[in-house]
Amino acid sequence: MNYPDTYSIEEQMEMDRQFEILLDAWTGKKEEADVALVKKAYEFAALAHKDARRKSGEPYIFHPIAVAIIVAKEIGMGTTSIISALLHDVVEDTDYTLEYISEEYGPKVARVVKGLTKLEGIDFQNSIESIQAENYRKIVNTMAEDIRVILVKLADRLHNMRTLESMQHHKQLKIASETLSFYAPLAYRLGLYAVKMELENLCLKYINPQVFESISKKLDEIRAKKIAELEEFAEPVKAELEKIGIKAEIKILERSQSGIWERMHKYELSLVEIYDVFVLRIIIDCPLDLEKIQCWQTFGVLTMFYRPNNARLRDWLSFPKTNGYESIHAVFMSKQGNWIETQIRTQKMDIIAERGLMAYLKYMNDNSSLKSWLDNIRDLTKSDDSSAIEFLNSFKLDLFNDEIFVFTPKGEMKSLPKGATVLDFAYMIHSEIGNQCIGANVNKKLVKMDYVLNMGDQVEIITSAFQIPQEKSFEFLVTSLAKSRLKNGIKDYRRTFKEKGKSKLEEFFKRFNVDFSRQNINYIVEKAGLAGRIDLYYYVALGKVTYQDIEPLFNNGRRSTSNVLLKILTFGLVGSGSKTEDNKVPEIENNENKDLGYTISTCCNPIPGDDVVAISFPNQPLQIHRSDCPKAINLMSRYGKNIVKAKWQFSEDIAFMATLKITGVNRKGFGSSLFTMLNEKLELDLHSVKIQSEGGMVEAVVSFYVNNVKQLDAVIGELRKMKLVNKVVRIERNIES
Predict the structure, then answer these.
(1) What is the average pLDDT across 161-170?
(2) Contact between residue 415 and residue 372 where contact means Cβ atoms under 8 Å apart
(3) Is a pLDDT exceeding 50 seen at residue 335?
(4) Which residues does 698 contact at the CB level (< 8 Å), separation at least 6?
């Protein structure tokens, strides 16, 4: 290829090398015509991006090549996806059009590139948040049409996260928060475990570098000892498997820093207290028809040498996850007295676990549960007309929740998110069944619509022709599909009151001499905070909106400027807020809201020394959060442009609230010893102390004021030295929050 002169000789040589890596990574079907088309796309992308450079200074073309390599090697996709990866930024960043892409590379490539091109030129009412949410919704919509869109997008995001060090810190926080909120759970749902874990790990590295470095250092200290223990654990098992003719490869895996931190945070454990930091994986080489037999035989071999913890047994063979994941997870007691996590799977199962969707579709038939999930997404995108933000929040519920499996009366297995109710199940079966659902027989026992289903339940829905869809059902629905179908059911029902309500409303307008125009009707809808005119007609028809409610909105035939609120409850209308307290906080650089003050967020109670982020909203005080606070991550993922650069100003004159949970042995004198330590030895400015005992254990929640993290760490260190104290952990909220 004759490269443009914007590339140096060294850069051209590296581009050639990277393209050869791409061809080697491409292990699927490769006809000569396919290779030629991929090469054509590569040369075109190099020309289109000839003047562009990344923040690191390297030519931009290195990014699409890297994305294409991930698509080919780590996800296992073919010609169309590789070409789409090479061209994914051409339409967005250059003057070339989708029509040109379609003519040169075909409509399939053009469709994927279109799905990967961000929304532009649209006037959104809620600007930043709506634009972000609309981009997410566009990805989901296009994913429903062509799954290659999201797979290429995940590869694009993975490479961006791998090269994030060249970005400014507030950009790093924005991109990492988006990734943690949307892309990592989506990778999990699609079975891309390796991609999901790397994304989460890179997010932790940028959102909470202190934690990432601390865990990495601790892993270095314990790695050799733990690997030796697992090797000793595996030795007799391996010998017995060989003896009975089961071919197996045994691997020792190290859990990622983000996975470890998730467990530490969730269960309030130290790293050394987590039993599955290192995992033993047994991968069996056997014919497909012997998979389940040999996996359970291997489990039996393990029980010959070690005692299992049956409470921690997870059978993903009998109940594969929606994304195709199959494995037996079992925990055994080692000779050293430590619990050992084991994973038993076949080579096919391991490939599916690593490669996700593409491998799953290769092995599974058209009736797969993942295909059913994608069908539900298509149904959702076609029927849902809510705002982009409502759609995204609802869709994310399906991404984050774990799964349960339930059965129909005929024994057909269905997958639902954990926490799903009888009504979720009814709407999954059919819209009308959901609309007319009044309860169910679960395991032959009568239950109500809001009954939360459990793994293995058999569910028979009970319906009534007199039942109508109701707003209050939103309170206990979990799945986005059910919410969408309920919303449509409510609209369809309310539409039957249109003529009656419209006629009554027209009479109202005549009485206070106002034109019965669409503009004036929409004015009432806006003032009432309703979803649309159909809702207004419905409430008028039922007498919930009366002449007395509407008349004050108009003054002598003109619209009133006063803010008159109608007391109408509408679905989808959710308000949120949190208590904050003013305090002196980090220094904020170059921000127009600086004069409005700041609030230290009580959801995470940051103190000097914590990694923090400031988030700005018009005419509001800046919100200061710990950078790994779940609320902050959610805000940063939705309002990326509102992140403000902040750094602590250390001062001994400023005190911040910190809260610790102290667990110990319930012995006489524990409370007085603790109070003496806190009040006299440590001389803390106490805010509150709450002590509660149960059986032989006692738990104390203590809130006090400190100047910085260093002082807090010293307090924690002294408390851990106390004779009867077992554990001391920092918690995010004080006991009054």
Answers:
(1) 90
(2) yes
(3) yes
(4) 663, 664, 665, 666, 670, 671, 691, 692
- Specify whether 460 is catalytic: no
CATH number of 656-731: 3.30.70.260
Q: Which fold has domain 9-192?
A: Hypothetical protein af1432 (1.10.3210)
CA distances for 182 relative to 89, 133, 150, 188, 380, angstroms: 20, 11, 11, 10, 17
Q: How far apart are CA 251 and CA 249, in angstroms?
A: 7
Reduce the DSSP state of residue 111 to 3 states and report it: helix
Catalytic residue among 16, 20, 92, 471: 92
92 is catalytic: yes
The residue type at 415: S
Q: Which residue has the higher pLDDT, 27 or 498?
A: 498
* Spatial distance between the Cα atoms of 607 and 386, rounded to a whole number of angstroms: 39
Alpha helices in 572-639 (DSSP H): 630-638
**Degrees, nearest 5: CA angle 214-216-221:** 95
Q: Answer yes or no: CATH 3.30.460.10 is held by domain 209-355.
A: yes
Give the residue range(s) of CATH 3.30.460.10 domains in the chain. Answer: 209-355
pLDDT for res 363: 59
126: confidence class by pLDDT, cuts 50, 70, 90: very low
Residues of each domain in the chain carrying CATH 3.30.70.260: 656-731
Instruction: Single out the catalytic residue among 16, 24, 51, 93.
Output: 93
Assigned token pair, 401: 């929740």
- The domain defined by 401-493 carries CATH number 3.10.20.30: yes
Res 125: pLDDT: 42
Banded model confidence at residue 204, pLDDT cuts 50, 70, 90: very high
DSSP label at 458? Answer: B
Question: Among 394, 576, 406, 399, which residue's Cα sits nearest to residue 477?
Answer: 394
**Which of the four pLDDT bands, split at 50, 70 and 90, describes residue 109?**
very high
pLDDT digit string, tens, across residues 373-432: 666 666 655 655 555 555 665 566 565 567 788 999 998 888 888 889 999 999 999 999
> How many other β-carbons are positioned within 10 Å of the β-carbon of residue 620?
12
Q: Which 8-state DSSP code applies to residue 289?
A: G
Q: What is the 3-state secondary structure (H, E, C) of 165-177?
A: HHCCHHHHHHHHH
Coil, strand or helix: which one is 559? strand
Q: Write out 511-528 in H/E/C secondary structure.
A: HCCCCCCHHHHHHHHHHH
How many residues comprise the chain? 737
- List the one residue out of 657, 658, 729 whose CA is nearest residue 699: 729
What are the tokens at 206? Answer: 């940028």
Does pLDDT of 554 surpass 90? no
Can you tell me the distance from the alpha carbon of 540 to that of 537, in angstroms, rounded to the nearest whole number?
5
Alpha helices in 268-356 (DSSP H): 291-305, 347-355
